Amino acid sequence: MHDNIEKIIVSQDEIQEIVARLGQQLREDYQGKNPIFICILKGAVMFMTDLVRAYDDFSEIEFMDVSSYGDELESSGEVKIIKDLDVPVKDRNIVIVEDIIDTGRTLDALIKLLTTRGAASVKICTLLSKPAHRILDVHVDYVGVEVPDEFLVGYGLDYRNQYRNLPYVGVLKPEVYA
């Protein structure tokens, strides 16, 4: 699996530093507010788990499975909710946790949905941001690091449901997916 990685973009140590920094920022911003952290499945699971531990204050966690990719390399542009929330969000502070923000389509749709459902606030926290690939201008409140427009895997990011368990984020060799 490691042999299929061209280069490491964000090391395991860098990820730990990012998670600690973002957890601290969120703790300062949401002290006493008991936010709901919404993990966008499956990619954000690793990041969300580490992030809520670093947050270290009262909070709730929820999960949504939302897709605009399927098994493809490019976003289809159609956002599908595969698994919705189990709790109401009316009058709650929401933090959407993403592994990577690429085109912005998924987050744009989620922000509109949660706002329509009456959330008190909706903020975005992402480990990775790929601004070169952005189609919709979505405001991201908490960004771990900006990354180049390359095919990334690891720490939750996948190619055909593989590579999620890498402890770092790396560039997948083109011959693997060509």
UniProtKB/TrEMBL annotation:
SUPFAM superfamilies for this protein: PRTase-like
Cofactor: Mg(2+)
Gene3D superfamilies: 3.40.50.2020
Catalytic activity field: GMP + diphosphate = guanine + 5-phospho-alpha-D-ribose 1-diphosphate; IMP + diphosphate = hypoxanthine + 5-phospho-alpha-D-ribose 1-diphosphate
Function per UniProt: Purine salvage pathway enzyme that catalyzes the transfer of the ribosyl-5-phosphate group from 5-phospho-alpha-D-ribose 1-diphosphate (PRPP) to the N9 position of the 6-oxopurines hypoxanthine and guanine to form the corresponding ribonucleotides IMP (inosine 5'-monophosphate) and GMP (guanosine 5'-monophosphate), with the release of PPi.
Enzyme Commission number(s) from the entry: 2.4.2.8
GO biological process entries: GMP salvage; guanine salvage; hypoxanthine metabolic process; IMP salvage; purine ribonucleoside salvage
Cellular component GO terms, alphabetical: cytosol
NCBIfam families per record: HGPRTase
Origin superkingdom: Bacteria
An annotated Gene Ontology molecular function: nucleotide binding
Keyword Cytoplasm attached: yes
Family under the similarity heading: Belongs to the purine/pyrimidine phosphoribosyltransferase family.
Coiled-coil zones: none
Subcellular location: Cytoplasm
Domain Phosphoribosyltransferase as annotated: residue spans: 11-160
Pathway assigned to this chain's UniProt record: Purine metabolism; IMP biosynthesis via salvage pathway; IMP from hypoxanthine: step 1/1; Purine metabolism; GMP biosynthesis via salvage pathway; GMP from guanine: step 1/1
CDD domains to which the protein is assigned, alphabetical: PRTases_typeI
Keywords, ordered alphabetically: Cytoplasm, Glycosyltransferase, Magnesium, Metal-binding, Nucleotide-binding, Purine salvage, Transferase
Main EC class the enzyme belongs to: transferase
Protein name: Hypoxanthine phosphoribosyltransferase
